[in-house]
Design brief:
The chain contains 2 helices and 2 strands, in the order ββαα. With about 70 residues, the chain is of the alpha+beta class. It starts with a strand and ends in a 6-residue tail after the last helix.
């Protein structure tokens, strides 16, 4: 599996992108890995704000509700 993201600024212009191999796993794991890599990438770029969009609502709910699925 691979994880990737495209970053845009507040005006919608391209600001960066990444793609990385995450190995084998379930779709939820891949989506959470993508979110984690996105946060790390944004931090490295010294961006103060990050808006995450995902079609996988379970991943978003898992992060927002801090369920036992993530330590």
């Amino acid at each position: 599996m691979y994880a990737g993201a495209i970053f845009r600024n507040c005006r919608g212009f391209f600001a960066g992108a990444f793609c990385t191999r995450t190995g084998h796993g379930f779709p939820l794991e891949a989506e959470l890995a993508t979110m984690l890599h996105s946060i790390i990438y944004a931090h490295a770029q010294r961006w103060r704000f990050l808006w995450v969009e995902s079609e996988f609502s379970l991943a978003v709910d898992t992060v927002q509700k801090k369920t036992p699925l993530i330590p």
